[in-house]
Structures are given as C-alpha cells and as structure tokens.
C-alpha cells in the first residue's frame, strides 16, 4: 500500500495540469458542500435560537383546545392560569398569553389578526413589551415589521381594533402602535398584534385567563395539568427540523450534481489514463506487478485526487469558510417574506463531523469512481499492453 | 540433481485464436539456455521470437509443452507466482524503452527495487551502481522526455540490471537507435553479461545485435530453423 501511495503520488504530480484541474474541481465540491451544509446547520441553530428567544422559551403549556392552525378554535381556547404557573409568572419564570381573534381596520381596510395579550413587564421573550407599559389611557400595541408593512402602519399610528368578548359581543377600540419590532420568526409577526394582557383580559371578559403559558426553564420536568397540554421545546421546534430536513434533501441534489461533475472529471481521467497508459500498465506487469496490483495502483492514484483536493480545500477553503462564518451569508431578498424562521443573514456552523464526514464521503466516492474503469486492466493482455495495442 | 540451464523448453506450442480458427505462432520448440548465455532469437517479423520471449518472461503461457525458467514451469504458475518470478529474477528491455515518463531516471531505475521492498540506503547504492554501469550518473534527475533514444535505452538497461537478475530478456533493444548508440548499448550489455554472468536472450533481426551474439537461434514461421554457437572472439567488431 505504501508503495502504491508513493507511485500514485509520483504519477499524479508528474501528470501536472491534468491532475490539478481535477483536484481544483473536486476541491470546489468539498468547499461548497461543507459551506452549504454549514449554512443549513447555522440556519437550524439560528431558527431554534430565534424561536426560543421570541416565541417558545423553554417550552409551553397550551390550552387543550388551542390549535394554532385553526383560527375558529382560538376564541374558545382559554382557561384560568393555574396557580403554580401564575406564581412562576410573578417571578418572571413563566409568561401567560391570551389569544383571541380580532380585526384591525387600517386605512379603512379590514385585516384579520390574532390579538395577543402579554405582560408588559415580561423579559422572558425578546418582544419589546415594555412599550406596552403606558398609563396615559391610550391602548398601546406592538406589531412586527411584516405586519406593519402589510397594514401600512407606522409607529404612533392609531388603528381600530375589533374583537368579540366571551359572550360573543363585538367591541372595538382604537389602539396606538407603540413600537414595531423586527424578528426572524414569522409566527410572532405576521397577523399578530400585541396589547397588554390585563387589557385584553378586560376586553374579552376573561380575567385571569390565558391561552398559552411560555416557560423559562427548559430543563425542568413539567407536570401534567388538567385542561392544559405541555409542549416541550423539542416538540415546538420539530417543524424547523422537518423544514431543514426538506431543505437538506433539496440541497443533496446540489451536492449530487457537484460531486457528479467532479466524479465525471475523475472517471474521464481514469478512462483516458487506462487508454493512453497501456504501455505503462504492461511495464508494471513486466516489472513484477500482478494485474490486480495495477488495478489497485490506478485506484489509489484516482483516489488520491480526493486527498490532494482536501489539502487544496484546506488551503483556500478554510479562510473562506471562516470568513463566511464571521460575516455570514446575507439573503439576497427579504428573508421575512420566506414565511419561515430564517434570519436575514445566516451564519454557517461547521462541525468536525461535517468536515470529516464530507472528506470521507468524497474520498470513498472518488475511490469507487477510480476503481470502476480500472477494472478493465484486470482483463488486459500484458503482452498487448506492452506493445501499446488498444484493448 | 542441479541443472545449470536457466531455461528449458520442451515441445512448446503457442496458438492464438483468430476468428473461428487459430494461428500457430510457435510450433514444437525445444531449446535449452545455459546460465550466462548471450543468445539471440533471430527471425523476420511474425517468426514467433517475441511470443517466445514473452512466454519465457512469464507474460504469456504455452498452449502446449513445457517451459521451465529458473526451475519454474511457466504454464503452472498463477498470476502472483509469475509476477514474483518477474519481480525477483527477470529483467526486461523493450524496443520502445517503456520508461515511466513522469518519473526521473533515478526513479525509473529504482522502481524494481521498490517492488523488492529493499531499504532506501540499499536502493540508493544499487541505483547509483546501475547508472554507473550505463554511464548515466549525471542524468539522475532528468526525465525520459529530456533524454535521447540511446540514453533512454541505457536507462532501460540499468532498470533491467539494477536488481542483478538471473535472466534479461531484450526485445529488439536497438530497433530505435542509430548505429553508434546501438554498439554502445550492446557493449554495455556484453560487459554486464561477462561481469555479472547474467543470461541475456534477445529477440532481434538487427545485424548489429546479431554480430554480438554468442549463440544464434533462427526462427522461421514459429519453428527453430537453425541453432548456431558462435566463436565469439572471431566475430567481435
């Protein structure tokens, strides 16, 4: 094996430009695959972090009727906040939120919204709820940038908010947009309007009630509560995992195409080598190699492209990947329009497993692609090969 | 009983399939080659000399008959055993040199020693010795494309001789060389034959080579036509 490596190295370096062209193409695949996979890992991490910070905290209790995908059930999804959770909320370790369906009327248009009542003093989520803490008789509201864009509302604007209380009676009031926040989590932005919890409880005639309670502590084993369903952080971020998985499948096609290009180049080189180097093959046999050993030599030679490509990738790819991890990859279009949790700038995350896995995967693929055409050598007649006779 | 013959050939036939029939390249060849011979297989193209050389070199197998090379029956060797025979005991010299183009002169000559897994210091000494025999110590770092035809063939001789094999098989070694280079090469091989007692078997129809041979075996249509032992001293140019 040592000899095969030595000879393969000499042959590859001796082949000059042809080798380096293949190596460059293969190294491009290496770097691109690691970068794209790093972006996916970074996206996954950022999405979950953003969801934790903006929406789900360390897990949530949902009222057992609450279904975020069924707007008709929302108005019936509320119950008194359990005592122990209420005590935690007072300590800032839980955040009750009341959700009811409503409408706003910006510029005379009607827009359905989910009205979220939230404690202005909370610090559990990143929502800038301190802006809701007013005492001048005005009902303050905060909305996300996408919501502001859709409704064409700006900070300081007043808009009419309509809702139905617990008895089914319509009521309405004007609210002032106290702040517009920017979040990478569409679920906290699109179609959502936040007002103080106590105000919403009063409006809806649901004092002391909530639809969901966000918890701070992720580690604690939360007990079951009658009328409430506990949703762990993992359950709540499952969607992100599914989405990343779907995206990864799509990206695998890109990896496949990249690898295919690199492998085609190597396959082509191998086929050409075997075609052009028949005399050399015959010479190896005459000097004491078996044909199987020559197959091995050519396979090692082809596989060594991957090793050289890995080294080249390390030379130019590492600075690039580190730079990308630092400055991130900014989306060419407004990421909030994607309708999923994605930051405007994604910061790739490269794990040891990702780098080692990619190197192993590409090397094995290269070895297989190198071996396939080399099998022809085993069928060659060495005396014809020595004469360079085409076989 | 010890046999001093390097090669023993008995009733050798070699047939190749051609279409639905077959072509007989060698027919009823029986020859013995003693150790240290400087012998040529002489004949026109198609007379079977290269085929015979390939069988002796274990690159091909007899269809019928027996060929013993250094006591091993070529027809009975498996691929690994045949490769071992070539690696340890045989040297080849080809008409078109068959040097490894991307390797230096040193690396080309070193190649057979790498296969024998000798230490780096042993290899270094043997390569330098071999290059000294052929007068190419100043071309160690050159690559074959940078050398003349004569120099390439001298590298090929050094490569064949570096492991001091018992038997060297040379197929038309001077076919691509001019007269001066041919004589230089042949004198080198003759010296090595004399000093190292290596058996040389040539396949040739070149008069320059023929004039150096101590034994001439004429082949015609795959059969031995004539087998002459030459009084070498009287013919030497």
Average pLDDT number of chain B: 90
Judged by helices, strands and strand pairing, the structural class of chain A is alpha+beta
Q: How much helix, percentage-wise, in residues of chain B?
A: 25-40%
- Spans of chain A of at least 5 consecutive residues whose pLDDT stays below 50 are none
Which structural class do the helices and strands of chain B define? alpha/beta
Average per-residue pLDDT of chain A, rounded, comes to: 88
* The CATH top-level class label of chain B: Alpha Beta
| CATH architecture type of chain B | 3-Layer(aba) Sandwich
What is the radius of gyration of chain A computed over CA atoms, rounded to a whole number of angstroms? 31 Å
Series of H and E elements of chain B: EEEHEEHEHHHEHEHEEH
Outline of chain B, from the CA principal axes?
Answer: globular
Helix amount of chain A: 40-55%
Chain pair sharing the greatest interface: A-B, 25 and 31 residues
Tell me the count of domains of chain B.
1
**Terminal Cα span of chain A:** 27 Å
As residue ranges, the low-confidence spans of chain B are none
Number of helices of chain B: 8
* Beta-strand share of residues of chain A: 15-25%
H and E order of chain A:
HHEHEHEEEHEEEHEEEHHHHEEHH
The biggest beta sheet of chain A, please?
Answer: 9 strands, mixed
The number of helices of chain A is: 12
Tell me about this structure.
The complex is a heterodimer of chains A (391) and B (237). Chain A is of the alpha+beta class and 391 residues long. Chain A has 2 domains: 2-52 and 239-386, no CATH class; 59-217, no CATH class. Chain A has 12 helices and 13 strands. In chain A, strands 1, 3, 4, 5, 6, 7, 8, 10 and 11 form a 9-stranded mixed β-sheet that branches. Chain A has a two-stranded antiparallel sheet with strand order 2-9. The mean pLDDT of chain A is 88. Chain B is α/β, with parallel strands linked by helices and 237 residues long. Chain B has one domain (35-60, 78-235): 3-Layer(aba) Sandwich (Rossmann fold), CATH 3.40.50. Chains A and B meet through helix 1, helix 9, helix 10 and helix 12 of A and helix 1, helix 2 and helix 3 of B.
